[in-house]
Amino acid sequence: MMADEVQNAEGAPEATTENTGAPARRGRGGRDGGRGGRDGGRGRRDDRRPRDEDGGEELIEKLVHINRVSKTVKGGKRFGFAALVVVGDGKGRAGFGHGKAREVPEAISKATAAAKKAMIRVPLRDGRTLHHDGRGHFGAGKVTLRSAPAGTGIIAGGPMRAVFESLGVADVVTKSVGTSNPYNMIRATFEALGEQTSPKAVAQRRGKKVSDLIKRGGASDRAAEAEAAAVTE
After folding, report:
1. How far is Cα of residue 94 from the mean position of the Cα atoms in its chain?
2. What residue spans carry the Basic and acidic residues bias annotation (predicted)?
3. Which residues are paired to 76 by β-bridges?
């Protein structure tokens, strides 16, 4: 019994020496594990990429105007950039937004994000032109929009052309009076587009058929029914 106790006592220091080395190894392993956790964190950050709100649908982005702005502070002036962007899906949805930042790419990204949140639906005839004429007014800007037959093209200039290209309109005639400020022109254009209505919406609101509305325009019964069947929205 005494010999066993002596052996155990003599073996204890050896076990203590091995055990004291083990925590050091575990500590290094813990640091390695910490690095692995940081690498995993990078992987999660890569997954948080900005996505379109339309579930990955491709959008048409048009940079309408970019302007350098400055802010006077105590130490001098701080320069930045302001961007105006129009976004659309080419199928009757469009929106506009503006953003400010110290760098141009960041200002454009802010404006694009704002435009995606403010997209509106505009009913189109045959998917190519407006259903009826419209007028819009904002500030000193006044615009007039007119539907056009096939083959006319987009008769518009500057900011208004970007709106119709992103909206998916192929034939339209427009006129802008009063100002060339792109912000006011864009807002006036979207005001006119927001008043667009389709025959189907009017018929549903009045409790009638689309063919009944077309007949009041002087069309025959057969022509009214054929045109009503062609109306998609």
Report:
1. 9
2. 29-56, 209-225
3. 73
Q: Is the dihedral of CA 24, 26, 32, 38 positive or negative?
A: negative
Nearest Cα neighbor of 191 from 127, 108, 118, 125 is 118
- Domains annotated for the chain, with CATH where assigned, are 60-121 (3.30.160.20), 198-233 (no CATH)
Residue 3, Ramachandran bin (φ over 0: left; ψ between -120 and 50: alpha; else beta):
alpha
In eight-state DSSP terms, residue 127 is: T
CA nearest to 169, candidates 150, 188, 183: 150
Per-residue pLDDT of the chain in tens (233 residues, 90 and over written 9)? 444 544 444 444 444 444 444 444 444 444 444 444 444 443 333 333 334 554 556 899 999 999 999 989 998 999 999 999 999 999 899 999 999 999 999 999 999 999 999 999 999 888 889 988 999 999 999 999 999 999 999 999 889 999 999 999 999 999 999 988 999 999 999 999 999 888 777 777 777 776 666 665 555 666 656 555 556 55
The C-alpha atoms of residue 174 and residue 199 are separated, in whole angstroms, by 22
pTM: 0.67
98: Cβ–Cβ under 8 A, 6 or more apart, which residues? 82, 83, 84, 85, 111, 114, 183
Percent of the chain as helix, strand, coil, to the nearest 5: 45, 25, 30
C-alpha dist (Å) from residue 55 to 50, 58, 98, 207: 11, 9, 23, 35
In this structure, are residues 139 and 181 in contact, taking their beta carbons and an 8 Å threshold?
yes
